[in-house]
Description:
Elements: H1 14-18, H2 21-26, E1 31-34, E2 38-41, E3 44-45, H3 46-53, E4 57-61, H4 62-76, E5 83-88, H5 95-103, E6 107-110, H6 113-121, E7 129-131, H7 138-147, E8 151-154, H8 157-170, E9 174-181, E10 203-204, H9 205-217, E11 221-227, H10 238-256, E12 263-265, H11 284-295, E13 301-304, H12 308-311, E14 315-325, E15 331-334, H13 343-347, E16 353-355, E17 363-369, E18 378-386, E19 393-396, E20 417-422, E21 425-430
Parallel strand pairs: 4-20, 5-6, 5-13, 6-7, 7-8, 8-9, 9-10, 9-11, 11-12, 12-13, 15-17
Antiparallel strand pairs: 1-2, 2-3, 4-14, 14-15, 14-19, 16-19, 17-18, 20-21
Helix pairs in contact: 4-11, 7-8, 9-10, 10-11
Bound molecules: ligand LLP.
The site of ligand LLP has 22 residues, from helix 12 and helix 13.
Amino acid sequence: MLYHARMDLPTLDPCAASAGTDVLLAARPWLRMDVQDGLLFDGVSLAAIAQGVGTPCWVTGADTLLRRVRTLQAAMGQVGVPVAIHFAMKSNDHLAVLALMRGAGVGMDVVSGGELARALHAGIDSAGIVFSGVGKTDAELDAALRAGIGQINVESAEELHRLSARATTLGLTAPVSLRVNPDVESGTHAKIATGHAETKFGVAHDDAAALYAQGTRLPGLRMDGLAVHIGSQIGVPAPFRDAYRRVAALVGDIRAAGHAVRRVDCGGGLGIAYGDDASLAGVPAAWAGAIATTLGGLDLALSIEPGRWLAAPAGLLLSRVIQTKAAPTPFVVLDAAMNDLARPALYDAFHAVVPVAPQRRAGRVMHLVGPVCETGDILAADRRMPEMRAGELVAILDTGAYGAVMSSTYNARPFAAQVMIGGGRWSVIRPRQPVEALWAGESVPGWLVRA
Ligand code: LLP
């Protein structure tokens, strides 16, 4: 089944590419252009932040982030049974973000021992932690068991046996949900679709009931339920509904065979509008509706694992123009690059870019690029926006998810500074990495250089 999901990810949306600043801001009420101070994010001047900490700089809006958590929680309230939210912290794992989530009663979806350690360090209640991923090492499984986390999503028969062995060795019981691959097309970019049969994720739908039954006979396991995640940046409810319908049928089959199914984890994947058309964004109420109609009446503890929808719009990347370069389509060379924001180079992803200064000049089409020595280091291609000059600031929007977490230090470019704003204040939540930190852990073997 193929969906022509309306989405922004695989290609540049020509409408969005030519949209003016006004149109882009109208779709994002948390941003506002002030005639004096320029672009404001949750009422805070971005020029002032750039002045204070320099660029490139990631800015996270705590007020916007919390508002989105509340919106999603309210939407899930309509399902009729509680739906727990586990934030997919792979999208943004900063301790301040995790602290905000904890305060809002949100648990965590982790995919590595590192994320587990981070979540525990942030004070997340272990019962509210779900561990997903196709390749958890023995050490990672042991850490999860010892921490007493609430749910381990098992993705293969092999992992089920290994988890049973680890739990037995430790004398503990593993709370297992079997991740099912429902074999539906999510209509999203190939690199982030996970719910069709050829991906590495989950157990084949047809094998799931038998494997679940097998799990009930293995020592050290408590088979609690099922999990499903079909992909990311999904803007329409149909793929969710299809996947959940298949999971609901499986719940019926497993129960008919005499086994308890107590919970279903509905995964993440709700998309946002990266361009100028807010109607393309995933709608929490529609997602909740897909869950309610398929799984709501089955006496299950339900949960979701959203990342992008919560975090992406709540963050932006502030960057300064190093210089412009004349060309048939002129280049604007920014001080942010693909090592900071990898998504455009990796997925041809579209991110709207808005000048921070209030003054307007005539618009023209340009390429906004980074200084990294790669042709692919293009942050925004063929973009119509006011002519830019050296020293001017731009905000690269919707980078609060899969932004800073995917940064590297390629080209010996230190990790950018991070700032959080909230209640009209701003604080540095991670200083720019000093260049010396790049080689701090390195050593040269004594035998290599002879005196
Ligand atoms: N649960 C599981 C098992 C996942 O694999 C993911 C994302 C999520 C939840 C959260 O999905 P979300 O709600 O954020 O769509 N780096 C890519 C996205 C990769 C998503 C990987 N899995 C990007 O920048 O678009």
